[in-house]
Amino acid sequence: MQVKSVTISQFKNLKEVGISFSSRFNCFVGNNGAGKTNVLDALYLLSMTKSFFTSVDGMNIRHGDDFFSVRGSYLRCGEELELLCSYSAASKKSFKKNGKQYERLSDHIGYVPLVMISPEDNELIDGGSEVRRRWLDMAVSQSNTDYLVTLMKYNKVLLHRNTLLKGLNGVLPRDCSLIDVLDERLVEFGNAVTAWREEFLVQFGPIFNSYYSKISSDREQVELRYKSSFASSNFETSLKDNLRRDCALGYTSVGVHRDDLTMLLSDYPVKKVGSQGQKKSFIIALKFALYDWLKSKKGVKPLLLLDDIFDKLDPTRVQSILNIVGSDEFGQIFITDTRRESVERMLLSIGADYKMFEVNDGVVSWE
Asked: Is 225:259 a contact under the CB 8 Å cutoff?
């Protein structure tokens, strides 16, 4: 998978940008707030149909303008591919592949596989369970289209159930037949989602462990565990057991929408015992493992976006990361950093082919 070029209009602080890329490393350097990350986010948008940072499309429009558009030219398995995403408050979002409008945006997820590593990923460790579920859902969705469809069905039924519970005002009715019907569907979709998540982690875990070992030079052991919102019973029984409580709360308190991903460092939560460098290594290993996973499932090398990842890492870990991404196992890579000389020195150390871009106040230039 390769992005040949991208044209960006009115996206965040980027007014009019046209860029042709190297097939290997593409480095965007400049001060914080210059717009480096926005270029990467435009690429993320073309893969995932939404921004990495916000699900509200209107927030991506450049201040003072009333629309944005991002157009990318790709090479996928030897074939030319053009993607176009545009949005305006008047006409909403349009997403096209080779000039044809998608009927469902979910159909595009996984077609242009991509992995992005960003400082925002700290929330995977330090944030709430919803952040980790979102990452897990994104990971499985890119390799399994049925998963995303089933998850959307689950969320639709969950919304109906929560609306019904809220309307009961804490009083459980004698006739619970409608709740029973919703529960039946919720269990059907929820059990499928859980099975796919657990299957993913069984296969994904060893890959993740291997990458963390390479980054940390075998100094620590890591583990991922799936944590269900109900410990001792199945989903159907848990829904029935918690029905009275759910009625009082006005929402569904158990289910895959409440599950979590436990992240361990040497058998302890990395959130509590990990240093900044260890946490960052954990996240980078997680994303590199996802890259490897997607490559094996999709049959193409995903795009890899590295947003300011070298900060707070010791030289040994930095060199380990460079050795990994410099191998033939990885394809096209996009890097942002504030230090041009440092990035060039790192890339030269692994003999990488690269193209350097300067970003200043939303303007991208190159030599």
From this structure: no
